[in-house]
């Protein structure tokens, strides 16, 4: 029987960890609501589960997404995760071939101690070399991680996460595991004249320098202890992400969504955060001096440790830049927004003064509050509607209410739902088939929360359709335009191509590095409650600076808020797509049908 | 009688007003101190367009320490953020309204 007391720290640590995870995940599963449980039951034995398994390999082990963002960092994570995984799997295969049957849990881990001599079983030489290669693979990643702690630039990061004390303690245990394994295996190999290219040669050197025999046993104890400490500490540190990320991937593939009232998925997402710190560099609040560290990794850390996270919840642009690079795919913006509800008043029936007005039309135009501050946008839209001969109703021309999204962005979901139902009734009564809005903030809530049985278009999409179907025609100018993706429209609602197509009809679009998924926030975000006017302008300055890299003659955007914020600090003129198109539009004489419409509108 | 009556005084007695709440709110959003009461916020207000809600008046009342109808009035705000965007002094009105509502809600029992 292969046994020695030094296997105890490892074995007990592992059993404690497994017990803890069983209880924790069991509780989570039990707390899921009936709807989610039903989803899991129906989807457990479908293709979704296989896709989830594939994702676990691609993301949890190989870290494909990190490779895309930063190859060096990707290699670091892959060598640690995938390398360790292979070390366990190959080690287990080797051990089982050797004993030709079942062995205790700890046996493969301490195989070299129990079987120190060069045995001649199937592929034994190959196994020794392979295990050494894998250990070297892990150690190379460990070396990079070590360098990263001292200088984040070595792996291409500007900043790395500031860790808590308990994280650092367990991190040390984790870092010690592999060098101690190398040491223990080398000493054993040196003494018994065995081992692969790494442990064998290193062992021979040790043996040449000093008698290795007295150090072998303590080295194996140290190795087992470091494993034990890591396993026991894991649930209380960021390493909890290793098992939890798998749960998240399954839940996501089974279609479970974040809900305000259900704590389970929130908890799963929070525990899935590995604190890798990739979100830190993408955050534009970094540019500002003396702001709190409110990046997603710190926000999640506070929520997880049950510390006060209010200031962090409020000091966020909700631009979604961090979410677009998060390698775990945590819904960072939705998660933060839901935690805002913890501090909001959330009362209903405060908007009794909004009276319902309605009008029958084919198309509804909802300009949005912000568009009323940029009258050229709404005037341009009216020109375009008239030119296209559309039977439209300008819903919030006078006495319009807000769409509700600004309330939602402040965490007041209840109050927002009141405005949603008020506006929804008016929209439904009009009998329109399309709703066009000029404001991406409105667009997002119309799409997500209104559940409208009609087409919801942002004006950039609508204008693009009119141009493609030749309902309106424009004269193409040679002016060079750079397009600024508004956060709510781009990352928020995945509308990237339509605005560019529409612009291309009327001008010459040039791209720069910060566009699409990677576009910058203008700083005017309604989500950030605590940002001062100065800081907003600082952000806008940087955004304009990066947008005008290629010296465009115009900056075009599709959001009245972005237009206002960028326009305030930009030397290059900022226009909305609607303005540009309306200016270049070939105006045809108004015919009879349209006249009738405009008369009806004024009546 | 004879078409005359005694009117209530318009005098504001700062000693009677509980200025602690005002100070607390100003600490949470200090930018209100630079408000020049120009009224741009009121002119652009979405809620003000629908009701006699007057955000400039609210700011003045708050600075004076008069909270009587402040809470119910501020409930009409839809937080659309236009006031903040047009403010020539850069007062973060949206946050001010949120913080005022919250402070008045929590400090209800302390209002004199």
SSE layout:
The complex is a heterodimer of chains A (603) and B (112).
Chain A: H1 7-31, H2 34-43, H3 47-61, H4 64-69, H5 71-99, H6 111-114, H7 124-150, H8 165-192, H9 199-209, H10 213-233, H11 241-253, H12 263-271, H13 278-282, H14 296-304, H15 310-314, H16 321-325, H17 332-340, E1 363-366, H18 375-387, E2 392-394, H19 405-409, H20 413-429, E3 434-437, H21 440-448, E4 455-458, H22 459-468, E5 480-484, H23 497-506, E6 508-510, H24 533-547, E7 554-557, H25 560-567, E8 573-576, H26 577-584, H27 592-602
Parallel strand pairs in A: 1-2, 1-3, 3-4, 5-6, 5-7, 7-8
Chain B: H1 19-28, H2 40-44, H3 55-64, H4 70-74, H5 82-86, H6 93-106
**Unreliable sequence segments of chain B:** none
Give the termini separation of chain B. Answer: 35 Å
Rg result of chain B? 15 Å
- CATH topology-level name of chain B: Fumarate Reductase Iron-sulfur Protein, Chain B, domain 2
* Largest sheet geometry of chain B: none
Global shape of chain B: globular
What is the overall pLDDT average of chain B? Answer: 86
Mean pLDDT of chain A: 91
What is the SS-derived class of chain B? mainly alpha
Approximate helicity band of chain A: 55-70%
The multimeric state of the shown protein is: heterodimer
Radius of gyration of chain A, CA atoms, in whole angstroms: 30 Å
Strand content of chain B: under 5%
Helix content percent band of chain B: 40-55%
The helix tally of chain A amounts to: 27
Q: How many structural domains are formed by the residues of chain B?
A: 1
Number of helices of chain B: 6
- In the CATH hierarchy, what is the architecture of chain B at level 2? Orthogonal Bundle
Structural class of chain A: mainly alpha
Q: Total number of β-strand segments of chain A? A: 8
Estimated share of beta-strand residues of chain A: 5-15%
């Amino acid at each position: 029987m292969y046994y020695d007391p030094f296997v105890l720290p490892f074995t007990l640590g592992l059993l404690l960890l497994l017990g803890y995870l069983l209880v924790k995940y069991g509780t989570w599963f039990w707390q899921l609501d009936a709807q989610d449980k039903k989803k899991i039951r129906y989807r457990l034995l479908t293709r979704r589960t296989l896709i989830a398994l594939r994702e676990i390999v691609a993301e949890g082990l190989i870290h494909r997404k990190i490779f895309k963002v930063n190859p060096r960092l990707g290699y670091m994570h892959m060598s640690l995760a995938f390398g360790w995984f292979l070390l366990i799997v190959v080690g287990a295969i080797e051990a089982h071939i050797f004993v030709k049957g079942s062995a205790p849990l700890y046996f493969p881990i301490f195989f070299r101690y129990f079987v120190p001599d060069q045995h001649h079983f199937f592929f034994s030489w190959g196994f020794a070399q392979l295990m050494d290669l894998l250990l070297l693979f892990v150690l190379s990643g460990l070396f990079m991680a070590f360098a990263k702690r001292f200088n984040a630039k070595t792996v291409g990061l500007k900043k790395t996460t500031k860790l808590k004390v308990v994280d650092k303690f367990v991190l040390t245990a984790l870092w010690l595991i592999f060098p101690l394994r190398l040491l223990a295996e080398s000493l054993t190999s040196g003494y018994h004249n065995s081992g692969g290219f790494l442990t064998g040669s290193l062992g021979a050197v040790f043996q040449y320098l000093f008698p290795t025999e007295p150090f072998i046993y303590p080295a194996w104890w140290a190795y087992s202890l470091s494993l034990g400490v890591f396993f026991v500490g894991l649930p209380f540190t960021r390493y909890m992400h290793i098992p939890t990320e798998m749960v998240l991937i399954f839940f996501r593939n089974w279609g479970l969504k974040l809900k305000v009232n259900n704590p389970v998925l929130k908890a799963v997402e929070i525990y899935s955060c590995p604190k890798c710190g990739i979100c830190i560099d993408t955050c534009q609040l970094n540019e500002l001096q003396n702001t709190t560290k409110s990046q997603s990794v710190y926000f999640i850390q506070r929520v997880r440790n049950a510390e006060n996270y209010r200031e962090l919840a409020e000091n966020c642009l909700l631009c979604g830049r961090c979410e677009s690079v998060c390698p775990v795919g945590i819904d960072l913006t939705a998660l933060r927004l839901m935690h805002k509800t913890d501090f909001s008043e959330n009362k209903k029936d405060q908007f009794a003064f909004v009276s319902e007005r309605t009008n029958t039309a084919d198309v509804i135009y909802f300009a949005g509050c912000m568009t009323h501050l940029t009258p050229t946008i709404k005037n341009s839209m009216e020109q375009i509607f008239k030119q296209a001969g559309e039977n439209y109703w300008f819903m919030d021309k006078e006495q319009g209410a807000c769409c509700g999204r600004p309330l939602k962005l402040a965490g007041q979901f209840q109050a927002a739902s009141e405005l949603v139902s008020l506006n929804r009734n008016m929209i439904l009564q009009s009998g329109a088939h399309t709703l066009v809005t000029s404001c991406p903030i409105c667009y997002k809530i119309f799409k997500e929360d209104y559940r409208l049985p009609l087409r919801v278009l942002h004006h950039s999409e609508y204008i693009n359709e009119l141009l493609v179907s030749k309902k309106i025609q424009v004269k193409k100018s040679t002016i060079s335009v750079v397009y600024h993706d508004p956060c709510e429209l781009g990352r928020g609602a995945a509308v990237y191509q339509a605005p560019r197509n529409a612009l291309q009809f009327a001008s010459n679009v040039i791209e720069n590095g910060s566009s699409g998924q990677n576009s910058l926030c203008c700083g005017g975000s309604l989500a950030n409650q605590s940002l001062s006017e100065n800081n907003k302008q600082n952000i806008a300055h940087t955004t304009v600076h990066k947008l005008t890299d290629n010296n465009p003659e115009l900056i075009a955007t599709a959001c009245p808020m972005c237009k206002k914020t960028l326009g305030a600090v930009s030397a290059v003129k900022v226009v909305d797509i609607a303005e540009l198109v309306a200016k270049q539009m070939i105006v045809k004489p108004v015919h009879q049908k349209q006249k009738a419409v405009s008369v009806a509108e004024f009546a | 009688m004879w078409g005359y009556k005694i009117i209530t005084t318009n005098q504001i007695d700062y000693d009677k007003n509980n200025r602690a709440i005002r100070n607390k709110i100003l600490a949470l959003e200090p930018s209100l101190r630079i408000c020049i009461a120009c009224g741009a916020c009121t002119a652009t207000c979405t809620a003000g367009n629908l009701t006699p809600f007057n955000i400039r008046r609210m700011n003045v009342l708050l600075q004076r320490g008069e909270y009587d109808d402040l809470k119910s009035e501020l409930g009409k705000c839809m937080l659309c953020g236009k006031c903040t965007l047009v403010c020539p002094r850069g007062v973060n009105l949206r946050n001010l309204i949120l913080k005022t509502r919250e402070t008045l809600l929590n400090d209800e029992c302390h209002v004199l």
